[in-house]
Fold this sequence. Notes:
- This protein is α+β, with helices and mostly antiparallel strands.
- The protein has two domains: 78-228, no CATH class; 237-335, RlpA-like domain (Barwin-like endoglucanases, Beta Barrel).
- It has helices at residues 2-64, 121-125, 136-148, 194-210, 314-319, and strands spanning 78-85, 88-95, 98-104, 158-163, 168-173, 176-181, 185-186, 237-250, 271-273, 282-287, 293-300, 308-313, 327-335.
- The chain is globular.
Amino acid sequence: MNKQLMSSVTATVLTTLLGTAGIASAQTLESANSVETANADALETLAASDLQETVSNDAVETASSPRQPQVAIAPSLTTLFPHTVGTSNAATLYVRNIPVLTFIAESSTNAASLDTGFITPEQVLSGEIATTPDHPLARAAAVAQKINALPPETAAELTLKWNHEARAYWVMRGEEAIAPIDAQHILPDSTRNWDQDALQVTNRLRRLVGGAGPLAMANIIGRPQSQFRNTPAPAQSVGQFLQQGIASWYGPGFHGRRSASGERFNQNAMTAAHRTLPFGTQVRVTNLRTGASVVVRINDRGPFTRGRVIDLSRAAAGAIGMIGSGVAPVKVEVLQ
């Protein structure tokens, strides 16, 4: 019995001790979990504090440090193409891939075109393409920069004004001079009529910048009488050759191929295909819907679709506003 009593006492003591130890262990574990939770909360608070401090420091640094500003650059409307005209350096300014204005330098016996192909105005203005300030490419880039800055809705504000002091036409937007038209700044596909050339430059810019309608000769501001200007005589039609009919255009699929004249077709040049006119003939093509006209050189044969009288290059078609329609009623005049 004593042994049973001792066993009961021992069991009770052990149970008590084990129970106490279990409780102590549970309390210790709970305490540890509390510490861990507290530590995690502290770390989270610290991380949030660090993040807030980082954001605050970034804000202070952005406000006070001399970081270079990030300038958003809009897609350029313009490209430049350096070349030569006779013995002079030249550069043609394109707007939406349509030639608008050719810049010509003073005559030089050793003129050499920069062999770069098409370039952007930014390449010239940044100094990536080295030029002198009076080089046609530098002048073209300066005008291109003004054109790129024109919002589309301002296209209808572009006007043509005669500058009596400079003896030149200027494309204007209000009081801002955009581009001159004179002996060193000419329409790439000249009609050999100064008034008409200047008007075409203006109307192309109006259409290409924002889709504005064309101006008429009567809209030229301060247009002088012809006796005050030394301008070439207007081109005349040869004989009685005159055609009216439908014009079409061709481009990408034929670009680089040999034309019927033997030269390679260039969709960006002012050329056209005609069924009978001699190669090299200069013709004026007028869009009867819009009144816009362009002078092209015949260097290919066609079109061979019934009812069509001439097939224009892509650039020439763009110049008279028929890219979208594909065809247009036109008048074709042969020039001297």
